[in-house]
Amino acid sequence: MAPDDRARPARSFPAVAVVATVGTTSSASVDPIPEIAKICREEKMWLHIDGAYGGAFTMMPEYKWVSRGWEMADSIVVNPHKTLFVPLDFSVLYVRDLERLRRVFTLVPEVLRGDTIEGEKNYMDYGIQLGRRFRALKAWVIWRSLGREGIVERLREQIRLANLLASWIKKDNRFELAAPVSMGVVCFRFVRADKDEIDRSNSEIVERINSSGRAYLTQTKLRGRTVMRIGLGNVLTMEEHLRKAWEIIQETASKL
Ligand SMILES: Cc1ncc(COP(=O)(O)O)c(C=O)c1O
Q1: What is the pLDDT of residues 193-226, one digit of tens each?
Q2: 83: which of 56, 98, 245, 249 fits an S-S bond (Cβ 3.0–4.6 Å)?
Q3: Number of domains in the chain
């Protein structure tokens, strides 16, 4: 969202909520939350912050900037299954006014009347699901075994690796970085092809590598252009794996 007043679209219906993202899906970019939050206050709109991927980086002191403006949010989501090493699925939702959430979702069937004792927090009253698994257990195990410092250390390593890959990309003039690297996602593009063929060449590299089974890349579109994408996040990914993946990309591009 562009927080500039002039960029506000004319609305034929009232907007009720804005979702600002911290770590967008394609390139891990970060929306300007304080500016967006100010507009939400003025226009009385609910502000939800989607920190599914990027929210956890705020655990690193040097990434505190990521949480600027969060104090003005109505709700925030963070996915420890994306960035905090917890296996799928484990999402955390923070809500300023919990009672409002309860009013929206609570629906107590007759068979459960006796279970909803006042004072006990029953999660069926705060979402669509009734039965649910004990997801908190796996998160507890990961966090107890790594500890806060261990998590921060691993996040820092991810960012070091992302920047290292970016430096290799910059050194090979057949490629260019397609977006600034701020977290563990690197978007880049093979540019040494006929102008009309560049998008297709990038998809071709991704498909050839993925079908070889030697590495796994994704592709996305940034400003209408096809780019390759590497997302770091697995606790077992080491520099040697990344180097190997980069060599495979270079080698595949050479054979196009
Ligand atoms: C920014 C962002 N928000 C939300 C989601 C949805 O995540 P999930 O369905 O795993 O909770 C994704 C998934 O890629 C994402 O990148």
Answers
A1: 788 899 999 999 999 999 999 999 999 999 999 9
A2: 56
A3: 2
